[in-house]
């Protein structure tokens, strides 16, 4: 977990947990179908990431890059690629259904909205989703380099 891809996986998992909490707080489970899809992405991403990070920390399956087989590195690359695809979808769906009037969203912050305005949280979820998409993209590139250099 001390390698750049390992640290990225920890960051991706923590961001997924934060996104899961924020989206659930905003009622994504009972919101538009696209929000439920995003909630599923955040939940699955957190669960898989926690298993992966926990497994490496507790020694399940030899996560050290010097000792793991090529198949494990390829599986980690597939995990990063799936994350890019899933967060790519979420990065489009969440803002689309949060900020487009045609989809039931609010394009501007409502007037008189207090400091705990739901609209502000929608923006935060959209930004954190984009950051996690970027993290998965960098992870995919880093893991790809390791797979290609050690294959």
TrEMBL record:
Topology in the lipid bilayer: Multi-pass membrane protein
Stretches that traverse the bilayer: 39-63, 75-97, 122-141
Main location: membrane
Compartments in which it is found: Membrane
Leader sequence segment: 1-29
GO CC terms of this entry: membrane
InterPro entries documented for this protein: Marvel (IPR008253), MYADM-like (IPR047123)
Keywords in alphabetical order: Membrane, Repeat, Signal, Transmembrane, Transmembrane helix
Keyword Repeat among record annotations: yes
Coiled-coil stretches: none
Domain MARVEL: 1-148
Isomerase is among the record's keywords: no
Family of the protein in this entry: Belongs to the MAL family.
Name of the protein in question: MARVEL domain-containing protein
Organism this protein belongs to: Falco tinnunculus
The organism's taxonomic lineage, starting at the top: Eukaryota, Metazoa, Chordata, Craniata, Vertebrata
